[in-house]
Amino acid sequence: MPALLSSWVLLLGPLCLPAASFGMFLVISVTLWIALYDRLILLIASKIAGKPVHLSPKQRMGIGLIFSLASIIVTAIVESIRRAMAVKEGYSDNPNGVVAMSAF
User: Fold this and answer.
1) Calpha distance 42→38 (Å, rounded)
2) Is residue 58 in some structural domain?
3) Helix (H, G, I), strand (E, B), or coil: what is residue 38?
4) Whether 6 contacts 97, CB under 8 Å
5) What is the distance in angstroms between the CA of the first residue and the CA of the last residue of the chain?
6) Rg of the Cα trace of the chain?
7) What span, in angstroms and rounded, lies between the C-alpha atoms of 37 and 21?
8) Alpha helix stretches (DSSP H) within the chain
9) Which structural domain range is residue 76 located in?
10) pLDDT (tens digit, 9 = 90+) per residue, 31-50?
11) In-domain check, residue 71
12) Is the pLDDT higher at 87 or at 19?
């Protein structure tokens, strides 16, 4: 594995991705969500209700907070798994150790 990649490299089949590159999935998912919400979900909900439907700003903020909390929980779980693997492989005292961990 190239030394220039992050110290925590995620293996995705034959593709090696540094852990920091997973931030791009956040940008992609937010962009897709905005497009789906604006062009598809609101349209379908309005047709079902028979009147224009939208979420209020408070509802959108609440949903955003729930998603934020869920992402923090998932991050904590993944980090605890990664930490356990690092200790198991003997990298707990090695700051340059690379834990081979699958993204799946």
Assistant:
1) 6
2) yes
3) helix
4) no
5) 19
6) 20
7) 25
8) 23-36, 42-49, 57-88
9) 54-89
10) 998 899 888 988 998 999 99
11) yes
12) 87
Tokens at 34, concatenated: 């905005």
Q: Residue 11 pLDDT more than 70?
A: no
Task: Quote the pLDDT of residue 6.
Answer: 47
Question: Distance between CA atoms of 104 and 73, rounded to whole angstroms?
Answer: 17
User: Global pTM?
Assistant: 0.61
Judged against a pLDDT cut of 80, whether residue 68 lies above it is answered with yes
How many other C-beta atoms are found inside a 10 Å radius of the C-beta of residue 10? 21
Structural domains of the chain, count: 1
Cα 42 to Cα 27, 55, 62, 93, distances in angstroms: 21, 9, 18, 52
* Least confident interval from 1-5, 84-88, 93-97, 100-104: 1-5
DSSP 19: G
